Amino acid sequence: MPQQATRDADPPASGAGLSATEAARRLAAAGPNVVATRQPARLRGRVLRQLRDPLIVVLLVAAVLTAVTADWADMTVILLVVVVNTVVGLAQEIRADRAIAALSAMTAPTARVVRDGAQAEVPAEQVVTGDLIVLGEGDVVPADARLVDAAALMVDESALTGESVAVDKDTVAVAGAGAGDAGLLSAGTVVVHGRGRAVVTATGADSAMGRIALLMRPDAGLTPLQRRLMDVSAVLAVVAVALCVVVLVLGLLRGLPLELMVVTSISLAVAAVPESLPAVVTLALALGARRMADRDAVIRRLPAVETLGSMTVLATDKTGTLTEGRMVARLLWTPDSHAEITGTGYDPSGAVRTERGALGPEDDPALTALLTAAALCNDARLVPPDTTGPDTTAPDTAGGPSSPDSHSWSALGDPTEAALLTAAARLGLDPHALNDRLPRVAERPFDSDRKRMSTIHRLPDGGYRVVCKGAPEAVLNPATVADTPEAIAVAAGWARDRALEGYRVLAVATRELPALAGQDDDIECDLHLIGLIALADPPRAVAAQTIRDCRAAGIRPVLITGDHPGTARAIATELGIIAAGEPVVDLREPSPGIDADAAVFARATPAQKLDLIQRLRDREQVVAMTGDGVNDGPALRRADIGVAMGRRGTEVARQAADLVLADDDLGTVVIAVAEGRRVYANIRRFLVYGLSGGAAEIAVMLIGPFLGLPLPLLPAQILWINLLTHGLPGVALGGEPAQRDILRRPPRPRSQSILGAGLWQRVLRLSVVLTAVTLGVAVWADATGRPWQSMAFFALGATQLAVALGSRSRQGSLANPSLLVAVGGAFALQLAALYLPPLRELLGTEPLAVSDLLLVTALSVSGYVAARLDRIIHPAPRGDRS
Description:
By secondary structure, this protein is an alpha+beta fold. It is built from 28 helices and 26 strands.
């Protein structure tokens, strides 16, 4: 395993950079510039961890017991379930390890460094602290670094910070205190504009990527379902052993043979443990995963299906999750008119609208002049769909590196400038034609000191036009524009109001020149303000409805973003996460503690996101975290359920998540919640069915002798009933459809047992009915000289199958035909056990007269009636869905 890199504060003595000898020495001392990974666990250790699960231990004990009783069919099924669960668990462990490994792919494969006074290209893993790196547009920063030289440098940090706007970088006061983050670069970020040189300050584990990798190491722990099943397994194991000992002792006290009672006790132990439970759980989760995959939601960890149903808090990132993840021009202002811009992404098919309707280039000269200027003072380029060639594979700098999408428009260059081109196109302007008609002849690039960019264009009549765009504070001042103070104040007020609403505002001004100015003349003066453009990262079309659906389902939405508080407030208010005036927690502001009850957290670092998730979990909340960036990776791992965006999301986010939304549609989460609740309801439905049957079998064996029935059922008969009822019918219950109001009920408490909310009382009530029918038939048959043991055997099996039919979620529906087939098949096999000679000899049964068979069959219907009446007389609590 490579040694972790460490910090080295020694900068190069000059622009010559490090010497090759010194770079080699530092590389040998600190190790490669790679994200440190854990040594993979050995296969044996991984397997043993999987087998320590209490439910698996119970199953292994049951397998041993079935082997002792020569019940090879049951033993094979149980061992198969153990093997499948272990393999699935191992696969999930390996996938989790890949989440950290994926961080390496986010760093640059190569880097340009200056060594011995000459520029060279080296593998990124050979970059060391103190190296002088050279950066240009499109480069991925290979390590954390401090700028020493920059020209119009802008960096996309969205993967790390969540900010959808590229960040200006400069060298102002880098050597002192006061530069903030302006002169610092982080590993894995992308240069979208300009150039620069920087001294590497941290590599490997000490870099931004390395620190995030360390945060991703703690596992999320067991899911709520896994914890509940572990508790049930422990209880069942203790109860089964205790009751079987009681049966053994009672039999011996009655003088029955020791060998017979030992076999009987083992059979009861197998009956008491619902060995089909893992199969039911696996089937229910697999069916849920398949149904979710049909809706573009890919499950990476099978237990996560149920965890979604337990969700009480949806903690979501903003950029790319609630919003489109790219800047879009939304509002236009000129001294004479105002307009709104419709449309999504970079598709020119939107429109510029006023109260008069959609506008064209000839309808409003002022707005046309504004968007013409914005398109001219611009270095970005729009790429139409289905474009082939290298441009289509370039990074989408508006949203971080992403895979090309041939079905949508994309952009090359600064995302803000791309948004201005799109706005011009939506008015009907052709940016290419504008540049041909008004060619650029000179420019002053953007830099963070001036906070503006200016270009000069040749006019058709031979004159020249200066176009300047930039931050309002950099343009709306007397030194730049010659407009009246009153006009400047009005424009500044509009810009300030839009900024408070979460918009990013740009001011655009122009000036006509009869001839080109000299090199010493300042072209950015005496300009005329032509208008303002407000840009925003707009909410996704389905985001507001998703928030409403979550609230209806009792799920509290929480926004955790790295964005500015004003931007976070605007989006949260628009989507209904908070009401107007509710507070937003700024995590950069000093405070005694984090208010976990707040709904919006702004300027959150990856470590703070992690802390917030843990605080919510410590308060017994089941937390789902959505995100798409590298900065979301640790929180996705720590949350009970991590949800990543499939299209826009980084590989780190996808590997760390439990659920990947292939269509990036947050509304799919609500569908997944319904699936999770359906799965949990079906598991509880099976537990009612399986445990009531097992309890009835034990009760029959305990009470029967006191009613004059020495051994109510033979060991083979117990195992046969258990195999038929807990086999296919029990597993088929896992495919029951959801109840229609499943999303209008609150989530269950995290601390609630899987047998809680009235479940164990229902088990007792149904077991009483099963026991009464079985013993009643046996006592009557014994008193009338009929084959009472065979009648009891048939009655117990048939009545349990009737309970299965009565446990359906939608009576009269054909939504789960497999249950009807399974119950019908099991009933046929129960009949075969009475009439087929080989089975009669194996099970020790006798054939029943037709009248007796019809009588017992009619009485077994009481199982169906009891299951239905129990739901009517004892309705499920509000949080129960079984």
